[in-house]
Predict the structure.
Amino acid sequence: MRTLPRWVLIPALLGGLLVLLPLVAMAARVQWDSFGALLTSESSLAALRLSLQTSATSTLACVILGVPMALLLARSDFPGLSLLRSLVLIPLVLPPVVGGIALLYTFGRQGLIGRHLEVLGVQIAFSTTAVVLAQTFVALPFLVISLEGALRTAGTRYEVAAASLGAKPSRVLSRVTLPLALPALLSGTVLSFARALGEFGATITFAGSLQGTTRTLPLEIYLQRESDPQAAIALSVVLMIVAVLIIAVARRRVPL
Amino acid sequence: MRARVRLAGAASGVVLALGAAGCGGGDASTTLVVYAAASLQAPFEELGEQFEAAHEDVEVEFSFAGSSTLVAQLQEGAPADVFASADTATMDRLTSAEPVDFASNTLMIAVPAGNPAHVRDLASLAREGVDLVVCAPEVPCGAASAKVEDSSGFTFAPVSEEQSVTDVLTKVTSGEADAGLVYVSDVRRAGDAVEGIEFAEAADAVNTYPITTVDGSAHEELGQEFVDLVTGGAGLAVLDEYGFAEA
């Protein structure tokens, strides 16, 4: 039985085209005969390697920091909780370049914390650590909201039951809470990784751009565009393929 | 203030366009679109005001960005009337252009106010512990920096290679970098936030700024008038004030 009005189809199709057409247009500009050579240039490989390393590291950081955050937000009850939850989501809605400026004034050489680290001989600015910090900053909310939402939906019935049967809190967490929330944890992790991989604004503002140290794939694309648009297109296609793969994997696990 | 004036201008343009569409009348003013290298922002905005004062009903709109970015946009058919590049190599990528050189700019070492790393000359930049930031070789100021590095015989190990000269300057003014290679005009523009250090090798890498009208522009005559303003006496005076030298 038809329940949707027919006209819905037209804006829906237009929306679909808006998403797909630019991807097709870019793929159409690829010079496939030189594609391999463009991708295997030293600078491209360095950027790809750095991007994968930093994104993996920041995803790990997101899991280590984000899971406890989601647990606290989902399971505790105190005044100001909803405000706190909104604050955690700030990086999600903040333009990344603003995040970059904020990080600069925190961890930069003259920054709130960076100033003291500098005295101890630790410099974060212009290092790979800065890239990981920027990526973690922007990717963390993705993991926290996916997991927190799932934890709330799942409720506490099983946890209460396990506790009443004598399980200690840590055991309840590892045997009941986390297994139940595993699909959400996985999709949150995948989304965080994707966000970290695509991070550009905060990185270029805060970390700088140097081959092999801070110049991740999006920064390399932005720079190549200046001198070699074909290389920029080839690298963009790689990121596009990675994005499609990520969605494919994530969708098989859980409906996003 | 300027931004607000321009916003108001854009809004009135929309209103005029709507009016024109609505009742088939109305005399909209002409807009001259000028694409110019980021380093030209200050002098060009001043020249734009002069141009607007001399031409009633003409509004000059600028797009300031890295020269290579602008050329890429022009090659994709961006609707500009005039283009000014920060170097001749980038201008040459616009095959149809017949540019005129109108200014030159020389590299200078910029250090944060107080010079915390005690940079004195080009040799200091190669010293360990000095965080140097330069432009990436893919953009004009980076090409000039690479030339200076070559002719000086020093080997620099920059902590970052930025996309544009303004990004380098930001890293220096914020104190993130101990030193940066920028243009004389950038040091002038930054005021008290940075100190500039001249060096002899800069003479080996002088950037020449060419300007041209863009092929297919709808306001070619007006565009040529703007080019004449920039290359003429008034243009030279303003450019000189902002630290640019004659071509």
Q: What stands out?
A: Chain B has two domains: 4-103+209-241, 107-205.
